[in-house]
């Protein structure tokens, strides 16, 4: 719980993104505004039930990951470190010049180093114990992205990992806000990363019926809210924000991209993987985010929806938005049409994109939307091209298996 207005003074001073639209914030923003899907055939998934994904193009840890031995890290940690490096540089921070005990790191992930786990299990099966790398555990333990980032920054404040499935990155940002509001740190580097485009994860999601089977046109497979949606597209990536109190950011003349005005976290308590048809968890999280921002539903101009492109999620989320906002009808987008579902990174990536939306007063379009679902409530979905509009307050929705719901509220910089 938070006191109304607690987070009105939190500034987003840095953003770092590594996504299927490209490495870097500028490349990702350009890609989501172009509104074209990034899914493509994936050779590593050949022969599996679904053979396409949304991968980060041209990612090279040798040049994009700081530190002397990037090859020791799982891809999840590599993506996180690359995004964090950009975010810290964007904020104009020199970690060495900070009081290390006042710098916090909070990163979320749904699966941590699952790629390393699968690879080393294959080596154990094929080659026996001596084939397993002694670096296996430090590479795949879920907390290691946060731990390695703390090592890279020299951060000695709270260093935490959040694991709330596909809401992990958003929950990390909310937890970082709570740490700042409680006075536990002065700077928080927060976000999420995941690299779950692996044979086991892809097969498991396909066996659940969660993935799109649109093999003939993978770039059009992720189609949030469209009547013909048939599942999400598995993706990878990372998003990291630097958060500070606005007074501190102003004192050091830092750029402020947006303000994190509020946050809310709740649970469906309904089903392990299916969303609550009544949307009770999302509704509670939204109400708490608005309460902590000192706002009402009528103040919300835009919602970056969770919008996975699965039949159940999109219909339930649209219905919940209808109940929450009624005729107020904020504009809605889902950037998963472009980026696919980056799992635990999604909430952090979408938080960053929502901050950019209020900074640029521009809403990116939802890719691959052609026909509305007659069984779902109508939402003001932005499609085709970016929409210029006044966005004094925007929400970013994140939902995860287990019923986790996190909503973040952003306002323009003061």
TrEMBL record:
Superkingdom of origin: Bacteria
Keywords assigned: Acyltransferase, Transferase
Q: Does the keyword GTP-binding apply?
A: no
Q: Does the keyword Acyltransferase apply?
A: yes
Note the SMART domains from the entry.
Answer: PKS_KS
The UniProt GO MF terms for this protein read: 3-oxoacyl-[acyl-carrier-protein] synthase activity
State the InterPro entries in the record: Beta-ketoacyl_synthase (IPR000794), Ketoacyl_synth_AS (IPR018201), Ketoacyl_synth_C (IPR014031), Ketoacyl_synth_N (IPR014030), PKS_Beta-ketoAc_synthase_dom (IPR020841), Thiolase-like (IPR016039)
GO BP term (any one): fatty acid biosynthetic process
* Pfam families from the UniProt entry: ketoacyl-synt (PF00109), Ketoacyl-synt_C (PF02801)
Signal peptide stretch: none
Family according to the record: Belongs to the thiolase-like superfamily. Beta-ketoacyl-ACP synthases family.
NCBIfam families listed in its UniProt record: PRK07314.1 (NF005589)
Protein's UniProt name? 3-oxoacyl-ACP synthase
- Species per Swiss-Prot/TrEMBL record: Streptomyces noursei (Streptomyces albulus)
